[in-house]
Amino acid sequence: MDLGCGLGFLSCVCAKFYRRAHVTGIDTFEHASLKGSSLEKANENARILGLSERVHFERGDILASDYGHRGFDLFVSNLVFHNLGRRRFAAYDRLLSWMAPNSHALLGDAFREGKGDVKRLSNIFRIEKEIDPKMSWAPYKILVLSKA
Predict the structure, then answer these.
(1) Would you say 55 and 65 are in contact if contact means Cβ atoms under 8 Å apart?
(2) CATH code, domain with 132
């Protein structure tokens, strides 16, 4: 599952890499940073790339939708959770509840509280890997998480 798929590019990259995967991209398609984004455009991009059999998109909100019955194996998210402010911790809890056993979450985000965010995440998930790409424009990190 790709949370915050914008125009669906990250979902399509995952589908290209994991050739037998079925990918669900979920986004509100409403955030100000996604001007011109839409569910229709994301699905069209998947069709153009020949991935529409394995990639589909849904309008959803991590804080309001329930995907727990699906048991996702991998979550991929880039620059989504920081947009939720303090509500991001409730979103992380929901994400954990949707994870299948032995699944992982790959989160790339601007962790504005730095070590404080990572510490709180370590109370929710097992942090398998922390990557600090030294981005000059934001406190950006990539975390590979699993169920604790």
Answers:
(1) no
(2) 3.40.50.150
92-118 tens-digit pLDDT: 999 999 898 899 999 999 988 878 899
The pTM assigned to this predicted structure is 0.82
DSSP 8-state class, residue 32? G
Domain that holds residue 94: 2-147
Q: How many domains does the chain have?
A: 1
Query: Cα-atom radius of gyration of the chain, to the nearest Å?
Result: 15
DSSP 90: H
Complete edge-to-edge strand list for the sheet that includes strand 23-27: 55-59, 23-27, 2-3, 72-78, 99-110, 140-147, 125-131
Lookup: tokens for 50:
């020949």
